[in-house]
TrEMBL record, chain A:
PANTHER family: DOLICHYL-DIPHOSPHOOLIGOSACCHARIDE--PROTEIN GLYCOSYLTRANSFERASE SUBUNIT 1 (PTHR21049:SF0), RIBOPHORIN I (PTHR21049). It comes from Komagataella phaffii (strain GS115 / ATCC 20864). It is a single-pass type I membrane protein. Subunit of the oligosaccharyl transferase (OST) complex that catalyzes the initial transfer of a defined glycan (Glc(3)Man(9)GlcNAc(2) in eukaryotes) from the lipid carrier dolichol-pyrophosphate to an asparagine residue within an Asn-X-Ser/Thr consensus motif in nascent polypeptide chains, the first step in protein N-glycosylation. N-glycosylation occurs cotranslationally and the complex associates with the Sec61 complex at the channel-forming translocon complex that mediates protein translocation across the endoplasmic reticulum (ER). All subunits are required for a maximal enzyme activity. The keyword Transmembrane applies. Keywords: Endoplasmic reticulum, Membrane, Signal, Transmembrane, Transmembrane helix. Component of the oligosaccharyltransferase (OST) complex. GO terms for biological process: dolichol-linked oligosaccharide biosynthetic process; protein N-linked glycosylation via asparagine. One of its GO terms (molecular function) is structural molecule activity. It comes from the Eukaryota. This is Dolichyl-diphosphooligosaccharide--protein glycosyltransferase subunit 1. Belongs to the OST1 family. GO terms for cellular component: oligosaccharyltransferase complex.
Automatic annotation (TrEMBL), chain B:
It catalyses: a di-trans,poly-cis-dolichyl diphosphooligosaccharide + L-asparaginyl-[protein] = N(4)-(oligosaccharide-(1->4)-N-acetyl-beta-D-glucosaminyl-(1->4)-N-acetyl-beta-D-glucosaminyl)-L-asparaginyl-[protein] + a di-trans,poly-cis-dolichyl diphosphate + H(+). The chain crosses the membrane at residues 23-45, 93-109, 121-142, 154-175, 187-212, 218-246, 258-279, 285-303, 315-341, 374-396, 403-421, 427-446, 458-481. The lineage of its organism: Eukaryota, Fungi, Dikarya, Ascomycota, Saccharomycotina. Its EC number is 2.4.99.18. It is found in: Endomembrane system. Belongs to the STT3 family. This is dolichyl-diphosphooligosaccharide--protein glycotransferase. The gene is STT3. It comes from Komagataella phaffii (strain ATCC 76273 / CBS 7435 / CECT 11047 / NRRL Y-11430 / Wegner 21-1). One of its GO terms (biological process) is protein N-linked glycosylation via asparagine.
């Protein structure tokens, strides 16, 4: 038996791992375009056409989006529409990219299974045209597959778009469209009239859809989120450094303040970012809010109904940049709890990213600055981080000890992940708590005593 | 400690009294420090912790460079981001004292566990040093009055010293250059000035090599910090010279002067920017001359004691003539050969206030180089200005070495303060000393009620007059504090980078256009973009926008400034040639017409014209910018040269569109541009890329040259033709029919 399985493995590696055992008998694709990134949900009902039970489903991901997946998620759907998460991971197999889904149990031949795959994809939306005049309505173009792109044959297919109420198909150079489907408006979106009944595996049908979206495409090139823990003051200081940009349509000519004022652009929605919102957590105390950039304080920020609204120095048009720092202070106790077993161990749970309502992050660096003398135990993140480092940082009055800095790096995140929590465990004893004030007191005492000693020394030459 | 003797008198132990006294003095100093520092914090409280004005931005940038790159790299710093394409040997053309001081403080604090941001150190440096100035002032006054009983007797000496410290702590004349954020050389230089003088007076009094070496050390620190060190360089020899003339030559003076001169000069020559100036430049000839003179006096003194009177007089006359001739010939020859620098313009402008206006407009164009109006003496020094002569008069009562010093200082500083507004700063300390002396003397006399108490003179009028004088001077003192606080708060606490204005409901609005535009430049232009602006904004662009500039507040190259001025003053066609030669990418203009901000470029325009006229008199003429009736107009009737000029067009381009229903009104100059005229102001060679919220800063980009080599001026004309009805049809026909493409 072992021999056979090894043989299969070998065959698999030579002839291909993805054995065509499935057929999609029902496939619905829902594309959500209501934000500045694309959310896709694929609801699939598949039947095992093979002769053996199968437990792995290879969900094919088109090449053009495989680099831009911020997040993917798969779950089974049972008869009463309940969803249970499944194990899945993205892998490159034989030159194609797949989300390898482990079904919770092997599916017998001729049996069916229902599941959903959700993808959050960034970098898919582009302004069309790329440059436009101030005040023009912006259109975005999305390139996606019209037909199901699957490793397996598909029967019965539906596709629907959410967000904009209508869109127009544009022809791309060199692309041939095998499907002449009509677009029709729906409530809260639009869809295609699918006329074909069956689709071969890996059907490529790229289509570019243009739709109106007169809003910016906010984009953070780099976010450095620093969290300073101070049990002494019971504070959690948050400081976020943003490299902000906008992927919306660029201005065709220079920015004219006269046009901006005459068209009353600051009161209208436009592709320019005029304010950045940071939703604050409800029920959590927040104070000492500041908003600065490299040349000093920016006086235009305000807190309104659980929203910190930050107005950049200038409206950020397409391809313009602005960097800034916002910070505030929370109560540490709102985020910290003691370990049940060991009273000296603490568990901190904080959101991975802080603010904004609609934004894509290219790079996020999350750093924890532990209290002086605290011992780092572990850090846990539900999302895979690309890098991880521990270093020592010296801050105010850190003469006899430093802050341990734990840094996690992430890439390609979207604002929807702001509820994802990162957990950090550290040990902080009473001795460590007392050490700093004692040492500071001692060093001041030593300084005073040595001053006294020095004044007693007589250096005069005449005796 | 406290005992009651058999006669019922309470006697307190000597040591306890001393302790109480020193505690009181410490308390007073703490109060002075609090007063001095807190009044300088108005700017931080009302605005923010920000570097002020223009020069401090350079100092701040240099300090950051020093902190990041170390001292040796700093000394060898060649800055290619200014004076493009020439660059500036920055390390060799600045006074490093200020930057080194902040960097040392920064590093020291970091060593003891206080890693304070360098910006905050720079912002707080001036207030911190102001409290040191007050302490130095205390010791200086104490030293000056020390050996005279008629200037201030016994216990009054400390009172006078404390008064001078208080006055100095909050005098607006000093605060004007030392509020938080005013990170300029003067911030530490005034402290050093006081300390140097204190040690000098002490050295003269004691004839101590130690104290004159300390004087030299602080003199060196001063040289490294501020160009105003020349004031010490000349004041000390003048003091010695006057003492010699008064026949007060002693070996004490000889020892202290020669020690200070030799050590101080050698040390000052270690500063790259100073280099060999102390033996070449005219500013430094006085100490050299006095140094020679004092040797002769010493020799003379020696001969006088050895020879008979008759022989000595003959010798003195003969050697005097020989040395006089040799000296003059030497001076003339050295100037001719070029060993001694020619007399500089700034020097002449110190003597003749009109010199600069005629010969060097660049110096005259700086507002702080203008002659001082009378009002600003009162504004900056309040009631001290009229107590000042009284104090000087008291010094005449007993001409001690210290009193002579006060008199000389007063005379020199008064003169210079009258010539240049900013030199009120050097006058302020001596005014505080004299004011303190005068007021102490006054209080000494009028607060003496022993006669009244003992019932010797029951004259009601004596009592009344005493109380009246005390009351009025008490009021003056009170008013002084009020005045200083008011002036500090309202006149000297604006960072000038951020402007404050008031909304209709009285709340404060910050106008942050400068930083808005600078930050836009920093964020949205290529890192090597070169920005042309008038030199006032050079340091700020370097500091805040971090972009290359052509001219800045260093103003070392008049021709370069004139070139920029010419590019602003001439027509588009000519300007394009200049800008392409310079390599301009962006142009920044300050326009206050919307906001009513009078310090804008149009109001500075005449200086640009004058400076460029100085170099190209045949191409630019100041007269051409005035209307035939001699008015400076910017409306429909403006002079043709004005209307054609690049700066004018860039300021008013699309200004008319702000007034959709009528004529455009310039709120600074109160002039009206008719609608049709305002719309006709057009630009061809540059493109507007950014204008700040209140139109204060406008940024333009020099267009790329046309691919086919056509002139940008004709191109725009063609475009306009196409924009007409007929042209539009033409254009539509020309357009090829293409499908929508991605």
């Amino acid at each position: 038996m072992k021999f056979i399985s090894i043989l299969f493995l070998l065959i698999g590696s030579v002839f291909g791992e993805i054995i065509n055992t499935w057929e999609n008998i029902d496939y619905a694709k829902v594309v959500d375009l209501s934000k500045s990134f694309v959310k896709e949900r694929h609801i699939i009902k598949a039947i095992n056409t093979g002769s053996e039970p199968a437990s792995t489903y290879y969900f094919a991901i088109p090449k053009n989006v495989s680099e831009s997946i911020a997040f993917s998620f798969a779950s089974t759907i049972d008869a009463s529409k309940n969803e249970v998460p499944m194990d899945s991971h993205i892998d490159e197999i034989e030159g194609g990219v797949y989300s390898v889904i482990q079904l919770p149990f092997p599916i017998a031949p001729k049996s069916k299974v229902s599941f959903a795959v959700s993808l959050v994809i960034t970098n898919q939306l582009e302004p069309f045209p790329r440059k436009q005049a101030l005040g023009d309505i912006q259109n975005l173009v999305l390139t996606t597959n019209k037909a199901p792109y699957s490793a397996y044959p598909t029967k019965s297919y539906k596709i629907r778009f959410q967000g904009p109420s209508s869109a127009k198909e544009v022809k791309t150079i060199g692309a041939t469209d095998p499907f002449g489907w009509e677009l029709k408006s729906l409530e809260g979106g639009f869809s295609y009239d699918v006329t074909e009944e069956s689709f071969a595996p890996y059907t490529e049908s790229p289509v570019s859809l243009v739709y109106e979206r007169n809003l910016p495409l906010p984009y953070v090139k780099d976010l450095r989120r620093d969290l300073w823990l101070s049990p002494r003051l019971n504070t959690l200081q948050v400081e976020e450094h943003y490299d902000y940009s906008n992927k919306a349509a660029e201005l065709i000519s220079g920015f004219s303040r006269a046009d901006w004022m005459n068209k009353r652009m600051s009161t209208k929605s436009s592709p320019a970012i005029t304010a950045i919102h940071f939703p604050l957590y409800k029920g959590v105390e927040i104070k000492d809010i500041y908003f600065t950039d490299l040349v000093g304080n920016v006086s235009t920020s305000l807190v309104m109904e659980n929203n910190l609204i930050v107005k950049p120095r200038f409206p950020i048009f397409g391809n313009w940049n602005y960097n800034f720092t916002v910070g505030w202070t929370h109560k540490l106790s709102d985020f910290l709890r003691e370990d049940a077993e060991d009273k000296d161990e603490y568990l901190l749970e904080v959101p991975l990213i802080g603010g904004s309502t609609d934004v894509v992050y290219e790079k996020v660096e999350l750093s924890f600055y532990l209290p002086e003398g605290a011992e780092f135990i572990s850090v846990q993140s539900p999302l895979a981080n690309t890098d991880y480092s521990i270093s020592e940082v010296y801050s105010y009055l850190d003469i006899f000890g430093s802050h341990t800095k734990v840094t996690l790096q992430f890439e390609n995140l979207v604002v929807d992940l702001r509820n994802v929590k990162v957990g950090l465990k550290y040990r902080y004893t009473l001795a460590a708590y007392l050490r700093k004030p004692i040492y500071i007191g001692l060093s001041i005492l030593v300084a005073l005593l040595s001053y006294l000693g020095i004044t007693k020394i007589d250096l005069s030459l005449s005796k | 400690m406290v005992t009651i003797n058999d006669q019922g008198y309470i006697t307190v132990n000597d040591r306890v009294l001393k302790l109480i006294k020193s505690l009181l003095i410490v308390l007073i100093f703490i109060s002075i420090t609090i007063a001095a520092v807190s009044s300088r914090l108005f700017s931080v409280i009302r605005f923010e912790s920000i570097i002020h004005e223009f020069d401090p931005w350079f100092n701040f940038r240099a300090t950051k460079y020093l902190v990041h790159n170390g001292f040796y790299k700093f000394l060898n710093w060649f800055d290619d981001k200014t004076w493009y394409p020439l660059g500036r040997v920055t390390g060799g053309t600045l006074y490093p004292g200020l930057m080194v001081t902040s960097a040392v403080i920064h590093n020291l604090l970091a060593k003891i566990g206080l890693p304070i941001d360098i910006r905050n150190i720079c912002v707080m440096l001036a207030p911190a040093f102001s409290s040191l100035t007050a302490i130095a002032m205390y010791f200086l006054t104490l030293e000056l009055t020390n050996d005279s009983e008629s200037i201030a007797n016994g216990t009054a000496k400390a009172t006078a010293a404390l008064f001078s410290a208080i006055f100095m702590g909050i005098t607006p004349g000093y605060i004007s250059r030392s509020v938080a954020g005013s990170y300029d050389n003067e911030a530490i230089a005034i402290t050093l000035l006081m300390v140097t003088f204190y040690f000098w007076i002490k050295a003269v009094k004691l004839g101590s090599i130690f104290y004159s070496s300390v004087t030299a050390l602080f003199y060196f620190y001063m040289v490294s910090a501020w160009g105003g060190y020349v004031f010490i360089t000349n004041l000390i020899p003048l003091h010695v010279f006057v003492l010699l003339l008064m026949g007060r030559f002693t070996h004490k003076i000889y020892v202290s002067y020669t020690t200070w001169y030799v050590l101080g000069t050698l040390m000052s020559m270690q500063i790259p920017f100073v280099g060999f100036l102390p033996i070449r430049s005219n500013d430094h000839m006085a100490p050299l001359g006095v140094f020679g003179l004092i040797q002769l006096v010493l020799i003379g003194d020696f001969f006088k004691s050895q020879l008979s009177r008759k022989v000595f007089i003959k010798l003195a006359i003969a050697s005097g003539v020989v040395i006089g001739i040799l000296g003059v010939v030497g001076l003339v020859l050295a100037t001719k050969i070029g060993l001694i620098a020619p007399w500089t313009g700034r020097f002449y402008s110190l003597w003749d206030t009109n010199y600069a206006k005629i010969h060097i407009p660049i110096i005259a164009s700086v507002s702080e180089h203008q002659p001082t109006p009378w009002a600003s003496f009162f504004f900056d020094l309040n009631f001290l200005i009229w107590l000042f002569p009284v104090g000087v008069w008291f010094c005449f009562q007993e001409l001690t070495d210290g009193a002579v010093f006060v008199i000389i200082y007063s005379v020199l500083a008064s003169y210079f303060a009258g010539v240049m507004v900013r030199l009120i700063l050097t006058l302020a300390p001596i005014v505080c000393v004299c004011g303190a002396i005068a007021i102490t003397k006054l209080f000494e006399v009028y607060s003496d009620f022993t006669d009244v108490v003992k019932g010797k003179s029951g004259n009601f009028f004596t009592l009344f007059s005493k109380l009246a004088v005390l009351g009025s001077f008490g009021f003056y003192l009170f008013f002084y504090v009020k005045h200083c606080t008011w002036v500090t708060e309202n006149a000297y606490s604006s960072p000038s980078v951020v402007l404050a204005s008031h909304a209709a409901d009285g709340s404060q609005i910050l106008i942050d256009d400068y930083r808005e535009a600078y930050y836009w430049l920093r964020m949205n232009t290529p890192e090597d973009a070169k920005v042309m602006a008038w030199w006032d904004y050079g340091y700020q662009i370097g500091g805040m926008a971090d972009r290359t500039t052509f001219v800045d507040n260093n103003t070392w190259n008049n021709t370069h400034i004139a070139t920029v001025g010419k590019a602003m003053a001439v027509s588009e066609e000519k300007s394009e040639v200049i800008m392409r030669q310079l390599g301009v990418d962006y142009i920044l203009v300050i326009f206050g017409g919307v906001l009513g901000y009078s310090g804008d470029d149009i109001n500075k325009f005449l200086w640009m014209v004058r400076i460029s006229e100085g170099i190209w008199p045949e191409e630019v003429s100041e007269r051409g910018y005035f209307t035939p009736r001699g008015e400076y107009k910017i409306d429909d009737n403006a002079a043709q040269a004005m209307k054609d000029s690049m700066l004018y067009k860039m300021s008013f381009y699309r200004f008319g569109e702000l007034f959709p229903s009528g004529d455009a009104i310039d709120r600074v100059r109160g002039q009206r541009l008719s609608r049709s005229y305002a719309e006709s102001i057009d630009l061809n060679i540059v493109e507007e890329v950014f204008t700040s919220e209140n139109w204060l800063v406008r940024l333009y980009k020099l267009k790329e040259p046309d691919n086919l080599g056509r002139s940008l001026l004709t191109l725009k004309d063609n475009e306009k033709k196409l924009a007409t009805k007929k042209g539009r049809r033409l254009r539509v026909n020309k357009k090829p029919s293409l499908d929508l493409r991605v």
